[in-house]
Design brief:
The complex is a heterodimer of chains A (about 375) and B (about 375).
Chain A lengths: L2 E12 L6 H16 L8 E5 L11 H7 L6 E5 L3 H13 L5 E9 L5 H6 L14 H16 L3 H15 L13 H6 L2 E3 L2 E2 L8 E10 H7 L4 E10 L13 H14 L4 H4 L2 E3 L5 H10 L8 H6 L16 H4 L6 H13 L13 E8 L5 E8 L1
Parallel strand pairs in A: 2-3, 2-4, 9-10
Antiparallel strand pairs in A: 1-7, 1-8, 4-7, 5-6, 8-11, 10-11
Helix pairs in contact in A: 1-2, 3-14, 5-11
Chain B lengths: L3 E8 L11 H16 L8 E5 L11 H4 L1 H5 L4 E4 L5 H14 L5 E9 L6 H6 L16 H14 L3 H15 L13 H6 L2 E3 L2 E2 L8 E10 H7 L4 E10 L13 H15 L4 H4 L2 E3 L5 H10 L8 H6 L23 H17 L12 E8 L4 E8 L4
Parallel strand pairs in B: 2-3, 2-4, 9-10
Antiparallel strand pairs in B: 1-7, 1-8, 4-7, 5-6, 8-11, 10-11
Helix pairs in contact in B: 4-14, 6-12, 7-12, 10-12
Classes of the chains: A alpha/beta (about 375), B alpha/beta (about 375).
């Protein structure tokens, strides 16, 4: 038995959505249901992926579950990036408990001070008083990587330019104005050594997918996309206990996903990858952890055109997280973009003839957790 | 699709505040107790599901801090949070991951330290809609009071009936070495304790606790190798109701729980729950809820929940004891609480209950509840696989 994706939905990422946050869930769910051409009554299970506190409250899913159409349905809510919710939804269908599941993630970053909120995720004894927040932690990773592998500012800028220019033709992207190398290098520092153009913004947005058992997917959908591998992993919480450039969680998550999908050489067997590029350096580090290139060689991939649309392995043709970062929905959006690519519906950022896609999500300080999903036509 | 059973359970002692340990240490204690109970090394646990509700502990996403110490280092870990129902959602997620064939052994760990929180009620108030309900200042106690007054008005239930629920819970907790509140109370003491929110009195309300629980789920073949008497997970069910209290008929939550119960019982072929289920560990943070849940789950006719208490049917030695552990009224580490219900129900089926063991348990039911009584979760355990 397999699990198929029969519909996807997104809303445009923006700096600040004006409507009530749970209304966004309704818009997202409606888009996904319309895409699958089924009705909410056909869905038997809703799995949410979202954080509390991001919207300034506890138990935020009290409202988003209704927005998602979960009334009187089975429900679970994963308090992590949405891609982890997808993994759980996959297990739910494979367990035989459900036939059709809506996986939905809403990220409304504008509702609260995300720096303060992510600082609250640190233990009160060793880390919190340092005043760290996740943005700062990504800058620490970037700095360590840059120093270790001697990455020039220009190589970093090329990744920013690639992703932000890809976003120009993605109708759902937040920062969709494009960038030049000079603009990247002249921008203000946000968190040294990162310039504001080299890191992800905070966005309001979200997305959803509809999963179905193989039998149902074949019945209602002409070109379902199949989940052929997935893996997730958790490493140490303390940033000081690890090499920040290695992304061990990504490595283990990918190993599990590759094994399940029977992938031996990821660089040649994967046709399109949507990665969690919180910073330009995270794209380099993730490419290495996923085995697309050797350690320390991630900096050349964009420079050589390997990861461009039209390159050997396009990375983030949607513009990636560098262009849109709806907190908690960013990882699930990676998969939605993979599905659009595999179905040939990615409008002007379409990659030709993609048959195998990889979606990658990371969460927590120093990429403590990671989830990798492989999908095929 | 594989059959799944619980093969090991571990709990910490629950207290008001664990001043001697930090989060990872508390979670570690429960996880260690669970693998020792199952008699397996931690290496055999392939994945973890972890549950905790933010931000009672004064830290957001505190699972990130404790998941390694609970055995999740370099392993797949998924974190659940469905408010009060978090614990059982964590169990359901672990069940699904094993039943799907992804893993053979998954441990669900719930940890919470409400003792770290200055005021749990004002924190819970933030879950309410800022436009309509938050300004009323309501916290969780409202979940007990509104349905209580409605039930009294509609069915003539009494303060004495509710007090019996507290008396029973405290009596049972004396038999549970893990329980937080360990003292007996009389009906008079309950009825003379201070009013928290009318008509609920202090003894009718749950405490706030610190502690953790671990439950190990295994696939059929593996479970049989680990233990001769696993607790088979014969059915799970969850349901979401609407968020607004005023939108529910009757300001009670009977309808949604009744639907979830019916779905579960249909799936498991249970026609008469009172006769066919031997023991129930229900999520009862306020005495009102024992009466309403018993009715919603079909243990008795609507309006008759108080009678079950008066006639001793749900006491130890009765036809269907409810909460032999002392339940939520005596122990409430919020994000772990619903998983404790599943753990205690599994303990009863495995025959490991010690002084709180109900004799000859073949079928045990556990429930969880979260949000403004918006989310219900149910798990049914059996001594034989369905």
């Amino acid at each position: 038995m397999r699990v198929g994706i029969i519909g996807v939905g997104q809303i445009k990422s923006e700096e600040c959505k004006k409507d009530v946050f749970s209304d966004q869930s309704t818009l997202i769910a409606k888009a996904a249901l319309a895409d699958a051409a089924i009705e909410i009554g056909d869905i038997d299970n809703v799995v949410l992926g979202e954080y509390d506190l991001v919207t300034g409250r506890t138990a935020a899913h009290m409202y988003t579950i209704m927005g998602a159409g979960g009334f009187l349905k089975d429900e679970l809510r994963i308090n992590d990036d949405g891609l982890f919710a997808l993994a759980q939804a996959y297990a739910g269908i494979m367990s035989g408990s459900f036939e059709k599941t809506l996986v939905l993630s809403t990220g409304i970053s504008s509702e609260g001070p995300q720096e303060l909120i992510t600082n609250m995720r640190l233990d009160p004894f060793f880390h919190r008083h340092l005043g760290l927040h996740e943005k700062m932690a990504t800058a620490m990773q970037a700095l360590q990587y840059r120093e270790k592998y001697q990455v020039s500012e220009k190589l970093s800028a090329k990744i920013a330019v690639k992703n932000r220019n890809n976003a120009k033709v993605n109708p759902y992207a937040h920062l969709d104005q494009g960038l030049s190398i000079d603009e990247v290098l002249e921008a203000d520092f946000d968190c040294w050594p990162l310039r504001i153009t080299e890191r992800a913004p905070w966005s309001d947005g979200g997305c959803a997918l509809i999963l179905a058992s193989e039998a149902y997917a074949r019945r209602v959908c002409q070109n379902p996309i199949w989940i052929s591998g997935l893996g997730w992993s958790n490493e140490t919480y303390y940033m000081g206990d690890k090499d920040l450039t290695q992304l061990t969680s990504v490595k283990y998550a990918a190993q599990r996903a590759y094994k399940m999908a029977g992938i031996k050489n990821s660089a040649t067997e994967i046709d399109i990858a949507e990665l969690f590029d919180l910073t330009t350096y995270h794209e380099m580090m993730t490419c290495e952890a996923l085995g697309f290139c050797e350690k320390g060689k991630g900096k050349y991939l964009a420079d050589e055109g390997f990861t461009e649309i039209g390159g050997q392995l396009p990375v983030n043709p949607s513009g990636g997280v560098l262009s849109s970062n709806p907190m908690s929905a960013s990882g699930l959006t990676r998969l939605v973009e993979c599905v659009l690519q595999l179905q040939g519906r990615a409008s002007d950022h379409q990659v030709t003839d993609a048959a195998t896609g990889l979606a990658q999500s990371i969460s927590g300080y120093g990429a403590q957790r990671a989830c990798t999903v492989i999908v095929r036509r | 699709m594989k059959r799944v059973a619980v093969v090991g359970v571990g709990q910490t002692k629950f207290v008001s505040q664990r001043k001697d340990a930090i989060h990872p240490e508390v979670a570690h204690e429960a996880a260690l107790a669970a693998i020792e109970d199952a008699g397996i090394p931690i290496e055999e646990v392939e994945a973890l599901t972890v549950g905790t509700m933010d931000p009672f502990d004064g830290i957001d996403c505190c699972d990130r801090w404790f998941s390694g110490a609970a055995g999740g280092f370099n392993k797949p870990v998924i974190r659940l949070n469905t408010a009060g129902a978090t614990g059982m959602s964590t169990g359901i997620a672990a069940y699904e991951q094993v039943a799907s064939g992804l893993f053979d052994i998954v441990m669900a760990v719930g940890e919470q330290r409400v003792g770290e929180c200055h005021d749990a009620q004002s924190l819970l108030n933030t879950c309410m809609c800022p436009y309509h309900e938050r300004a009323l200042g309501a916290g969780a106690v409202l979940l007990g009071t509104f349905p209580a007054t409605r039930h009294m008005h509609k069915f003539g239930s009494t303060n004495e009936q509710r007090a019996l629920s507290a008396v029973k819970a405290h009596q049972n907790a004396m038999n549970n070495p893990h329980a937080h509140l360990q003292f007996e109370v009389t009906v008079d003491q309950v009825l003379n304790s201070p009013i928290v929110e009318w008509p609920l009195r202090l003894m009718e309300c749950c405490p706030r606790s610190d502690g953790a629980v671990g439950v190990i789920f295994a696939s059929e073949d593996v479970a049989k190798k680990i233990t001769d008497r696993p607790a088979w997970v014969n059915g799970v069910s969850s349901i979401a109701d609407g968020p607004f209290f005023g939108d529910r008929p009757d300001v009670s939550y009977r309808a949604a729980l009744a639907i979830a119960g019916r779905r579960l019982f249909d799936k498991c072929g249970i026609k008469n729950p009172l006769k066919e289920i031997d023991v129930a560990e229900l999520y009862i943070p306020f005495t009102t809820m024992e009466i309403i849940q018993a009715e919603a789950l079909g243990f008795c006719e609507e309006g008759q929940g108080g009678r079950l208490l008066e006639e001793g049917i749900t006491w130890m030695g009765g036809e269907m004891p409810i909460c032999p552990s002392g339940g939520v009224l005596c122990t409430n580490p919020i994000g772990a609480t619903a998983l404790i219900r599943a753990a205690e129900a599994a303990i009863q089926v495995m025959g490991k209950g010690g002084k709180r063991q109900v004799p000859n348990v073949e079928t045990a039911l556990a429930s969880g509840l979260g949000g403004m009584v918006q989310f219900h979760t149910l798990m049914l355990f059996g001594s034989e696989p369905r």
